[in-house]
Amino acid sequence: MERLVQRVPARLRLLCWVVLFLLLATAGTSPAGTPPPDEGDLLRVAVLDVGQGDAIVIQTPGGKTALIDAGPGKSRELLLAQLALLGVERIDAAFNTHPHEDHLGGFVAVLERYPVRLFSDSGAVHTTRAYENMLRELKARQVPARVARRGQVYKIGSGATLEVLAPTDAWFQQAAGELNNTSVVLRLTYHEFSMDLMGDAEVEVEDHLLGAGVAPAVVLKVGHHGSRSSSTSAFIDRLQVRVAIISCGADNRYGHPHRETLDTFRSRGVRVFRTDRDGQIRVLSDGSRMWVETFPRSRWQSAGATGTPKPANVEGPFDLEEIRARPVAPLGTAAPALSQPATAGDGATAAPRDAPAGYVASAKSKVFHLATCPYARRISPQNLQHYATREAAIGAGKSPARCCNP
Predict the structure, then answer these.
(1) Distance (Å, whole) CA 313 – CA 280
(2) Pairing outcome for strands 65-68 and 56-59
(3) DSSP class of 31
(4) Quick one: pLDDT at residue 105?
(5) Which residues pair with 166 in a beta bridge?
(6) Which of 14, 238, 268, 404 could hold 337 in an S-S bridge, CB 3.0 to 4.6 Å?
(7) Angle CA(290)–CA(264)–CA(370) in degrees, nearest 5?
């Protein structure tokens, strides 16, 4: 054996050792899937790892940056570290979906660190100190502000657009008592790529969007951190999303994401990513293909402010033209990916239209449900209204909910 080793030239032995070292150094760290091309040529969407809250960064190939929400105040250092890691130098457009602290608490820190060219929200107000501090900082820095309403389209560069899907003026007045349902809902489009960003919008907003003829989307930033109050079967069937992203904190006190929501996605073959498990989640697209990368907190934190962390996992490329070629579920119908009937999250099959259990509605909502509808169980007791007949509910000014079609 010694003679055989001695016969191998020293230079070749050195090369073998180098190759072996490289193989060992990269073992266990190489992501699965095919890595995307140079990120500078891609649209990038980063759902940041900010605990129980939302913060999303959109960066176009031309260098424009949009920020949707800024997470809770206690996570501002996490927020700023990830913005620096992404190379953010300014915010061309900032959106606050609604004035809950877990979506706006970091805006003061962002305004102190970066120039912001435009700020937009739904116009909903709140009485919290976090909300008032944000308004004070916006005014002090003279940031132009605009109330977001359906139909507005922001051209953010390189052919990418952000379209406001909700609220309308009428819906805003109707939902004013429920801040989650005043959420600014946005659609990001880049050639064949599309992504809906739901804020904390709940079932009533989803029904509103269904009634307005919402188009399919490839990616969904799931509403309300994966709560059972959002992501109805009818809505997900209409969108026909391939990827769902849930922003939530590990072991949060709300139990987000709820099992019913995860079951809705799982039964339709939708790939789910979660910030509590996957860390920062990046979606990248060249307009015809899409990749999803995940960066656990330990990985992006160890990279430092100027480092380039390697993703723990890469999925893709997904062919967007193939996805868009799928048949669209007609409005008011379900089109589950599996052959078995779609079920509500707890395994109960949706009730037939003529179920004899009556009808219910929330005092704060304009829609009514079958009493056996899974979403009826989400109405708080103090707001619960009962109707013996369908005609009685309609006579009270309620409209049928699309999730159960009463």
Answers:
(1) 11
(2) antiparallel
(3) P
(4) 97
(5) 185
(6) 268
(7) 140
Domain CATH for 182: 3.60.15.10
Among candidate residues 84, 143, 59, the one with its CA nearest the CA of residue 108: 143
DSSP 50: -
Residue 105 is classified by DSSP as T
- Which residues are CB-neighbours of 75 under 8 A, at least 6 positions away? 50, 51, 53, 55, 105, 106
Q: By three-state DSSP, how is residue 287 classified?
A: coil
CA distance to 124, 193, 314, per residue, from 92 (Å) = 22, 21, 28
CA 78 to chain centre: 19
Positions of the chain with pLDDT under 70? 1-33, 38-40, 305-307, 324-357, 364, 373-382, 402-405
Question: What Cα–Cα distance (Å) separates residue 248 from each residue in 49, 177, 221, 258?
Answer: 8, 24, 11, 11
| Domain end residue (candidates: 277, 298, 324) | 324
SS3 category, 55: coil
CB atoms within 10 A of CB 214: 19
What the block records as the tokens of 60 is: 């176009």
Token pair 């995940």 is found at 294
Measured CA to CA, the distance from residue 172 to residue 147 in angstroms comes to: 11
Query: In this structure, what token pair is assigned to residue 153?
Result: 């389209």
245 and 366 assigned to the same domain: no
Distance of CA 352 to the CA centre of its chain: 31
Q: So what's the pLDDT on residue 15?
A: 55
Q: How many beta carbons lie within 10 A of that of residue 341, not counting itself?
A: 10
